[in-house]
Structure formats: C-alpha cells, structure tokens
Design a protein that fits this description.
Length: 422
C-alpha cells in the first residue's frame, strides 16, 4: 500500500537521529533555509557539525574565492570543495572510522525588490556512502516559481531537506533518489531541470537517463541536452539566443533532421549565423509512447548528438507552451517549424478542444512578440503535389486568417530541398 511522503520535519528528525551521518550545511545568497529545519526539529547536534551562511558577496568571496557568478555551478563546486576538505581535516582523525561525512551546499537568488523574475538555485551534496569511502556527489539546478519571496525561500528549504534525506536513505538508487527530491513540492512551485551525479555510488548511473526522469517523473517540464548529447542546464544553451525549433520524433528515416537543417539555413540572417540555435524538441506528451520510453528517448538523443544538434525533451503538448518556456531564457526570436500537413491539422480544432477559444486561442498564445511559424512543404497525400504555406488547404472560415498570418510575417514559407540521395 502506498504511503504519504514524510514531511520535511520528519525527514530532518530521521537524519538527526543517525549518529553515524555527520556534516556541514553551507548556504549563500538567498539560500538560508535548509539548516533551519534540522535545528527546529531537535537533535541537530547529531547531524550538523557546522552551518554557515554568507549573504554578502565580499564575505562569500573571502571564504570560497572569486567566482564569475554567485548563483552558478562553479560557485557551488567551490563551496563543496572547501567545506568538505575542512570537514575531513577537522574530524576524520578523531571520528572518521565510525562516521560517514557529508556537505550540503546551495547558492540561490529569489525574488526581491530589484529582482522580479523566477528564483534560481544550485544545490549539491558531497558524501561518503560508508565511513572512510571516496566521496560521491549530487548536483541539481532548480527554478523557484512562487510569486512571493518567502514562498520561494520555503520551497528551497524543502528541496534541500529532500535532497539530504534522499541521499541518506536511498543513496544506492539514483532514480529513487531523484524521485524524492520533489516530495511536498509541485512543478508550480519548483522545477528541477538539471541533475548530475558522480562518485562510486553512481558509477553505474546514466546521467542522461536521470535527466529524462526529471521530465517523466513530473519534476521538470523540460530538460536540455547539448549538441554532444550531454545534459545541460537550459540557460547555458538558450539564454538570449535566437532559436529555430522543430518538434518531431527524430527517429531514423523520418526526415526530421532534413527539415530542421533546411529551416535553420533559410531562416538564419547572416549576422546571426553563429548565434542561432537549431533546437530539436521531443515531446513525451504522446499517448502512443513505447513501453520502454527511456530506451526509445535515448536512441533518439543518440541520433541527434551524432548530427551535432541540441535537444529539448518536454512533456508539453501545445507549441504555445514551448514558447512560454523559451521566454524564461530571454530568447529574442523563436521560429517554430512544421510541415504543411501538420499545420493543416491545427485548423481542424481537435488538438485544442480543451481551450475555450479553440484554434484562435492557440494561435494567439503562440504568436507573441518575437515568435513566428515556418512551414516546410509536404506532399499532398492524394495528388502528390507539394503543398506550400500559401496553398495548404484549410477550411473556408480560416482562409482569411491564414492570409493575414502570411501577410504579417507570422507564418513564413520554406523552400523544399531536393530529396537526399541514399
């Protein structure tokens, strides 16, 4: 029988009562919420060797050294390095034979009077899985989505307690560990959109699979993979970069890569040739998903990496929701690519029955400033003729709408490339 997840207080108390698990909690910036849980429930002397909080940037630099950004993986790694080294130097000689040491660290920025966007945080834990062992490590990136600063801080505290407890309780199962970091939190409050693991506990873990689990387990709406196939924190590949996005299956022989290459080449202005990101988007919101969804997705990601293309794996159904997601990263222009037959289906309204305004509402949400749609010619199933954006058949009540979108540059026509040989 399923049981309710433990509360943050119950988790903190369980960890506190284990005298063989001992370490440091270090928090800088807006992240000053995790240690409080362990002190509030009692028994923290059994867990916390030291808690440290640095809010002033100069103080942070004095402790951990200079960094290019304060809320970054670089800063998180500096914190873990220094605190773990200090912990072992101080305590390993006297209690190292009976104690598994750990360091939890986070660096975060939440909403404030001068910062009105979503909160962001890097969190990590470095730990011994048994006394004297080589350290293993978990690193997470999270977006804090609550509208109020206090709520973002509370969510960060819950997330940190979840991570510490998960490592303490299920450290041998990386998939179960990640599933528990979202306990007592919804994606409306927190999205964990990047995870990395290393060390002896995780030597058999597939980091790509773990990041897919963030989407499949409803912890993130999207995760990103770089052009070499590695998972990356999305802003590293998207921030202030124009994108050309094609949603497709990207299975061998289906022609998606051909269309994305054509669109990227034809839509990319000369001045942006080095900046435009051709982005393959794979949506898991598919009722026909295969039984082994992990293997299927990994094979498709392998093909995209072989072609040198970055990928975004989402569980988003509608394209306008992908546009909303991209706006998080200040993307100046986003062009979505579709075949003309796929576009014609939009006007049948079936995909948008759940929206009060149907296809009109869907298009209105999609065509926000900086967003356009590019149509690649498909062949008519009956005649075999190429259907361009201007000749695609749509119901009569939508023809003037299509002409309006074409005339105003919201829909762009792509040229069909010659069929590839072989």
């Amino acid at each position: 029988m399923a049981t309710e997840p433990l509360s943050a207080g119950q988790k903190a108390l369980q960890v506190n009562l284990d005298r063989a698990w001992y370490g440091t909690i270090a928090e800088i910036g807006a992240g000053q919420e995790v240690a409080r849980w362990f002190f509030a429930v009692g028994g923290a002397a059994g867990t916390v060797a030291k808690s440290i909080s640095a809010y002033d940037m100069a103080v942070s630099d004095g402790i951990y050294g200079k960094g290019r950004r304060y809320v970054s993986r670089e800063r998180l790694e500096q914190m873990l390095d220094r605190e773990y080294r200090s912990l072992l130097e101080s305590l390993a000689p006297t209690r190292g034979e009976a104690t598994s040491f750990f360091v939890f660290a986070d660096t975060a920025a939440t909403r404030s009077y001068s910062r009105r966007e979503d909160g962001v945080a890097w969190l990590g834990i470095r730990f011994q899985h048994r006394p004297g062992s080589e350290a293993s490590q978990v690193v997470l990136h999270a977006r804090l989505l609550d509208s109020e600063t206090a709520q973002q801080q509370e969510a960060l505290g819950l997330l940190g307690v979840n991570l510490i407890h998960a490592v303490w309780s299920v450290r041998d199962d990386s998939a179960a560990l990640l599933a528990r970091v979202g306990d007592q939190l919804s994606r409306d409050r927190v999205e964990v959109d990047f995870a990395d693991v290393s060390g002896p506990v995780f030597q058999h873990s597939d980091v790509r699979r773990l990041n897919l689990d963030l989407v499949l387990g409803k912890i993130a709406r999207a995760v990103m993979f770089a052009s070499d196939g590695r998972p990356v924190e999305p802003s590293l590949g998207l921030y202030k970069r124009p994108v050309v996005v094609l949603r497709g299956s990207f299975r061998p022989g289906e022609g998606d890569l051909h269309i994305l290459a054509a669109a990227t080449d034809q839509l990319r202005p000369a001045e942006d040739r080095e900046r435009v990101v051709p982005l393959a988007e794979i949506s898991t919101a598919d009722s026909h998903a295969p039984a082994d969804v992990h293997t299927d997705l990994l094979e498709r990601l392998d093909g995209l990496a072989a072609a040198g293309l970055p990928a975004l794996v989402t569980d988003v159904g509608e394209l306008f929701r992908v546009a909303v997601y991209l706006r998080r990263y200040a993307v100046p222009r986003a062009v979505f690519v579709a075949g003309t037959r796929v576009f014609a289906e939009l006007f049948r309204e079936k995909p948008f029955d759940h929206l009060p305004g149907g296809v009109f509402e869907a298009l209105g949400r999609l065509f926000t400033p900086g967003v356009a749609l590019a149509l690649y010619p498909d062949r008519d199933a009956g005649t075999g003729e190429l259907l361009s954006a201007s000749t695609v058949p749509v119901p009569s009540e939508f023809r003037h709408l299509l002409q309006h979108l074409l005339a105003n540059g919201l829909i762009r026509e792509l040229r069909a490339l010659p069929p590839r040989e072989g």
